[in-house]
Amino acid sequence: MKAEIISIGTELLLGHVVNTNAAYLAGKLACLGVDLYHQSTVGDNPRRLSESIRTALGRSDLVILTGGLGPTVDDITAATVAKATGRPLVLNHSALNGIRSFFKSRKMRISAGNERQAYIPQLARPIRNRLGTAPGIIIEIRDKSIICLPGPPRELCPMFEEGVAPYIAKRFGRLDLLVTRTIKTVGMPEAGVNRAVRDLLELPPPTTVGIYAKLREVHLVIMAKAATRKLALRSIAGIEKKIRRRLGGIIFGYDDDTLEGAVGAILIKKKMTIAVAESCTGGLISSRLTDVSGSSKYFIRGAVPYSNDVKVKYVGVSRDSLKKYGAVSRQVALELARGIRTVMDVDIGLGVTGIAGPDGGTAKKPVGLVYVALAKEGGSVVKEFRFSGSRQDVKWHSSQAALDMIRRNI
Amino acid sequence: MKAEIISIGTELLLGHVVNTNAAYLAGKLACLGVDLYHQSTVGDNPRRLSESIRTALGRSDLVILTGGLGPTVDDITAATVAKATGRPLVLNHSALNGIRSFFKSRKMRISAGNERQAYIPQLARPIRNRLGTAPGIIIEIRDKSIICLPGPPRELCPMFEEGVAPYIAKRFGRLDLLVTRTIKTVGMPEAGVNRAVRDLLELPPPTTVGIYAKLREVHLVIMAKAATRKLALRSIAGIEKKIRRRLGGIIFGYDDDTLEGAVGAILIKKKMTIAVAESCTGGLISSRLTDVSGSSKYFIRGAVPYSNDVKVKYVGVSRDSLKKYGAVSRQVALELARGIRTVMDVDIGLGVTGIAGPDGGTAKKPVGLVYVALAKEGGSVVKEFRFSGSRQDVKWHSSQAALDMIRRNI
């Protein structure tokens, strides 16, 4: 059972739109146990679309087309599929009723263009669109299927869930399920994680492990294919145990967990409070900590003391240290952490100072130099980092390093 | 001159990663005047990748491959291209030196896997990677070119700008250029912008206009194809003038401008300073304001007074108002704005309070209710918003509304 996705739209080939539909459908197909070997994008061009459909039908059992179902002249999908499959467009009354009731429920008048959307290839079946005018289309050709879906994600996603996933499960019979488990690590470069689990990365199907490097995170994805969820979970559990034994402390979470969420969960568990004084990150660490629902339980205050005066007056950094060591220094990071902790009377004080760039660097203190400090009962820690990349990259890396420091020190 | 993009990575076909590289490259190729007719994605599978390369070389002059250049066994791009083109992998000393100096500058030891990245097809040329270990690869086969780029966007984008765009311009000579001009608006829904410029959206080539809705922004993209940049710019200028006349005040910038950058430019021009007291946005507004290089000139301090005590003690919100109106109220937003302005002695004080959700809403004060206030010499303004979506959506929408309020009131 092989599937393939064809994304249609000149806007994709001009780079005006990022193709999130392909990733969404790929993920859904994987969960249904359908193998996806190709995804391709073509513009609003009948000849090239025809060619793509023919190539796809030659090598895949299920071809999913997205986009080009709208009411304008640019929308060529239905007509091109009709031609490529030798099934002329005919008015489908159930599709027409669907479109009419869509307009009626919104108290709007239907246009000729929208009525045109009820024409679908002969012997094809419409799929209801709750959130737009274009019905989806299912065409069966011997043992193969073509499915056309509308381009807007808010129409496509519910249509897939409600009308397409059940169809695929029924039409292509019982398929093996693919269950995935993502293990997320922070604080070790990809090469190091790779070395620790190299043998697992070479496991043959049906249970495999992939490695993905994100900005200062490395994710390991265990994928198990099996007839039942229970069987898949069992083979995942064995590998997960091995990975946990080898990587231990650098694992911060699983699946949809975020680093800020993991930090929040530890703070809640330990009933600790935190305040942040961040200079070069400009509020990013506070923003990430407060992205977590319920963060008001532990996050007391964020401070972005951008100017030296504010560092002195409101966080208690000493003018001497600023003069002697400079604003970007180990010393000032520590004083920011200790200062905000004392001022706010919290368990954890975090201080960050650095040079985000692109300007402001010197030979001794280059762009990307960042100090992260943490103050808690019984002592403080401070670390020096040298990050590369854009201003936003340096901010992001710094926030990752800071969140990881909280995680490791409480 | 036809180009084609092949994206490589099983993670793309499993839906673990959204293919932003394809959109980035598509946009860049369009600007260079290169026609892109196909984009396809294949997994880490040598046979299917070979097939894709052969198909692409059969119909396109320029084939760009992304991904699969890393140091692990999954990374099959260089070896597969070598095989498909009949050019065996050989050690390239310039590539090896690049990788070595990357590790040296970071004071890290080079691994065997990374040395392997210096092997590229015979007669190919490496492209320097400033931000990672994998060099890019350029292979010329008669009048066609294959270009391999690393998968991580932060490595791919600068490499394209610095090493690939100049190469394409030189190798493929004079092309009809596509020049685009993006006009960015904030504060009016897509339907309203659409109504104002409907006639322009239907212009025929060579100069067309597209409309794209982003989170609380609407972008209009003017695209002109012409033999010279000057000619293209001339036809763009005429349409741009019309759009500016019709949309005036809701336009905040052009092309790569960001809303935070536009706000920063106005603050610098007016020699004004700003401080922010943001509760529900949790530091996001400060972080966005400080994403702008040079923001230390106007951004004096960010405060994230998450708890009521901090609002009272450090920003000067009155306990009476908190009691009488609640923390999420017009009154408290105003006191945050006025308080931070007075405490910090800045020109502009911004105050934000709201319910980001998903918990904490009530019938009277639902999730998504947000107040944004601005205090300046001669008075204050405050606005109520009701946003929908996730916690992060509400935070983002609030930050957009706040930045727009600054823009409109100074």
Strand content of chain A: 25-35%
CA-to-CA gap between the ends of chain A?
49 Å
Radius of gyration of chain A, CA atoms, in whole angstroms: 28 Å
Main structural class of chain A: alpha/beta
Major sheet attributes of chain A: 6 strands, mixed
Write structural notes for this entry:
2 copies of one chain form a homodimer. Chain A is of the alpha/beta class and 410 residues long. Chain A is elongated. In chain A, the strands form 4 sheets. In chain A, strands 2-1-3-8-7-6 form a 6-stranded mixed beta sheet, with helices on both faces. Chain A has a 5-stranded mixed beta sheet with strand order 14-13-15-16-17. A 4-stranded antiparallel beta sheet of chain A has the order 10-11-9-12. In chain A, helix 2 packs parallel to helix 7 (153-171), helix 3 (46-59) crosses helix 4 (77-85) and helix 8 crosses helix 9. Chain A has 15 helices and 17 strands.
Secondary structure: elements and pairs:
2 copies of one chain form a homodimer.
Chain A: E1 2-8, H1 10-13, H2 20-31, E2 35-42, H3 46-59, E3 62-66, H4 77-85, E4 89-91, H5 93-105, H6 112-116, E5 119-121, E6 125-127, E7 136-141, E8 144-149, H7 153-171, E9 177-186, H8 190-201, E10 207-214, E11 217-226, H9 229-247, E12 251-254, H10 259-269, E13 274-278, H11 284-289, E14 299-305, H12 308-315, H13 319-325, H14 330-344, E15 348-354, E16 369-376, E17 379-386, H15 391-409
Parallel strand pairs in A: 1-2, 1-3, 3-8, 13-14, 13-15
Antiparallel strand pairs in A: 4-5, 6-7, 7-8, 9-11, 9-12, 10-11, 15-16, 16-17
Helix pairs in contact in A: 2-7, 3-4, 8-9, 10-15
